[in-house]
Specification:
mainly alpha
């Protein structure tokens, strides 16, 4: 899995968890859950970003751009 896919998968999983938890409970509890999720997401993104192979990221972005532009 390339870096872009990993970042997208990580943020998507947090979005899903956020919506599942946010739609239940009271406001004070929801604020705490959102704060906890934001902290966990920040830690996960920091972990991913510290392990990024920048050359591979550029290649992945270039490939995604080429794929996108050929599908226009």
């Amino acid at each position: 899995m390339n870096t872009i896919e990993k970042l997208k998968q990580t943020t998507d999983s947090y979005k899903k968890e956020y919506y599942e938890k946010y739609t239940k409970g009271n406001v004070a509890k929801n604020v705490m859950l959102v704060s906890e999720l934001q902290l966990k997401l920040a830690e996960d993104l920091k972990s991913i970003s510290s392990s990024i192979d920048h050359e591979q990221l550029i290649k992945d972005l270039h490939k995604d751009f080429i794929d996108f532009s050929t599908n226009l």
